[in-house]
């Protein structure tokens, strides 16, 4: 029995007519212009005909709703629709129902170890950035998000439970790195969030659901970024951006936050122009929605980082733009009330901004001015944000090295080593390697430092 026939029998539709009616009445069918007959259903069930992708996605969504569990294209047609991993979830889809199915397919791929390995190996794709910015900025607003399927209706309480779970996972990420719980995050998304996205909900519940789903998809993307799985991170960010837009005012500027995450990633992959475009796109969200001072400050800080990198690449005018953006970020954060900020931006406080200011100043060559900002960042960062503190320490060590103080640089870097051994973050290891490459060879203190780095980081993700 082929996959479709087996799942059809389990779903208990009974007649081809009832299955065809369920397909034709599904929100995704209406959105995609899909219509099937009982004759077509019979051919699909017998295996004599394979539907096109648009029809197949609706059939999968109907089966998932009836069975109350995740169902994917790969479950139903493992050969015909074995997804091209390189294209999976990379588009910013105009259609909200199609986006929901793309998210479900991405999560199904993540929990399938064979396909997850190929997905994790993909790199950042700059062309997808331009498409995402265009779709987000100029695409139509989702006038209604409610939908009715055969699933039980989603409640505000279920949405609140997702938000609590997301906050818990986020705390672990800050303290121990993305590698510690990322697999648990993607499993939770696959098992609990994707079925709700495919379910029934009112417009009000739907917008709240999309807002919290966007937060959790962003978190999964951020954890992938922390593990340097850049193609995977980009896919989560793009889908998070689409759901954030669908949530409307519920997002409170979360669109800008995701755009900044994409900007950070573009900069990490040495695409400074794209990083600047993304940071300035975040300003568009700031202008269009009810954002808060911390969100606005974050967007300016991202712009400053991008300008600093452009200066480093030879654009002499970019240093002035960098300084202007840093001043704007400081002004915005000074007007804020930490108690009035959304939880997802709570980390962006004065110590975090001090770290951002210092980073950009070092890149544009003003290391002396950066040092007090680094000291302020380290003094202010709490111990439950161990990874952030570690990056501050390494940035301070690098700044000391730029001023010619090798002993101070090594002393600060060695203070960071015990913490580094407890954090499951590929970025941490890469940052230590980068710092090591900047050190002079054959110095006795450097040789001893190398040995400690090797001992502390052995086995860390």
Protein described:
- This protein is mainly α.
- It folds into 4 domains: 3-82; 86-251, no CATH class; 252-352, no CATH class; 382-461.
- It is built from 23 helices and no strands.
- The protein has helices at residues 3-11, 16-25, 27-32, 38-46, 53-67, 73-76, 96-111, 113-120, 126-138, 156-176, 178-197, 203-226, 230-247, 254-268, 272-288, 293-312, 318-334, 350-363, 367-380, 386-402, 406-420, 426-437, 444-457.
- Helix 2 (16-25) packs across helix 4.
Short description:
By secondary structure, the protein is an all-alpha fold. The chain has four domains: 3-82; 86-251, no CATH class; 252-352, no CATH class; 382-461.
Distance linking N and C termini:
42 Å
- Round the mean pLDDT to the nearest integer and report it: 91
Determine the fraction of residues in helical runs and give it as a percent range. Answer: over 70%
What is the tally of beta strands?
0
Computed over alpha carbons, the radius of gyration is 24 Å
Order of helices and strands: HHHHHHHHHHHHHHHHHHHHHHH
Number of helices: 23
Tally of discrete structural domains: 4
Percent of sequence in beta strands: under 5%
Class from secondary-structure proportions = mainly alpha
Can you tell me the overall shape?
Answer: elongated
Q: Return residue spans where pLDDT drops below 50 for at least 5 consecutive residues.
A: none
The biggest sheet, with number of strands, parallel, antiparallel or mixed sense and barrel status, is: none
């Amino acid at each position: 029995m082929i996959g479709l026939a087996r799942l059809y029998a389990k779903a208990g539709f009974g007649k081809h007519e009832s299955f065809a009616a369920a397909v034709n009445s599904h929100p995704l069918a209406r959105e995609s212009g899909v219509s099937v007959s009982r004759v077509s259903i019979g051919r699909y069930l017998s295996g004599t005909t394979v539907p096109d992708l648009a029809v197949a996605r609706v059939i999968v969504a109907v089966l998932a709703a009836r069975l109350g569990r995740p169902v994917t294209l790969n479950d139903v047609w493992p050969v015909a629709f074995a997804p091209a991993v390189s294209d999976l979830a990379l588009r910013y889809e105009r259609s909200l129902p199609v986006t929901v199915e793309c998210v479900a397919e991405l999560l199904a791929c993540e929990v399938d170890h064979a396909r997850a390995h190929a997905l994790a190996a993909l790199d950042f794709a700059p062309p997808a950035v331009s498409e995402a910015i265009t779709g987000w900025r100029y695409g139509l607003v989702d006038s209604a998000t409610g939908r009715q399927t055969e699933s039980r209706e989603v409640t505000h309480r279920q949405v609140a439970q997702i938000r609590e779970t997301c906050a818990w996972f986020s705390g672990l990420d800050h303290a121990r790195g993305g590698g510690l719980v990322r697999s648990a995050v993607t499993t939770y998304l696959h098992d609990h969030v994707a079925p709700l996205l495919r379910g029934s909900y009112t417009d009000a519940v739907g917008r709240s659901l999309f807002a919290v789903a966007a937060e959790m998809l962003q978190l999964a993307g951020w954890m992938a970024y922390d593990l340097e799985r850049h193609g995977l991170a980009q896919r989560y960010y793009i889908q998070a951006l689409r759901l954030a837009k669908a949530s409307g005012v519920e997002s409170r500027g979360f669109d800008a936050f995701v755009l900044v995450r994409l900007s950070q990633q573009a900069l990490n992959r040495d695409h400074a122009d794209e990083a600047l475009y993304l940071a300035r796109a975040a300003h568009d969200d700031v202008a269009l929605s009810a954002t808060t001072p911390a969100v606005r400050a974050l967007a300016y800080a991202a712009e400053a980082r991008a300008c600093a990198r452009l200066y480093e690449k030879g654009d002499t005018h970019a240093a002035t733009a960098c300084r202007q953006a840093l001043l704007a970020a400081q002004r915005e954060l000074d007007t804020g009330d930490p108690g009035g900020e959304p939880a997802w931006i709570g980390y962006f406080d004065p110590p975090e901004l001090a770290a951002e200011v210092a980073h950009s100043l070092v890149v544009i060559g003003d290391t002396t001015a950066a040092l007090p900002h680094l000291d302020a960042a380290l003094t202010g960062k709490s111990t439950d944000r161990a990874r952030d503190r570690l990056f501050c320490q390494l940035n301070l060590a690098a700044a000391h090295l730029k001023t010619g103080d090798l002993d101070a640089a090594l002393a600060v870097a060695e203070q960071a080593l015990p913490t580094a051994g407890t954090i499951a973050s590929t970025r941490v290891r890469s940052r230590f390697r980068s710092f090591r490459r900047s050190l002079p060879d054959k110095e006795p203190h450097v040789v001893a430092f190398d040995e400690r780095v090797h001992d502390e980081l052995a086995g860390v993700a």
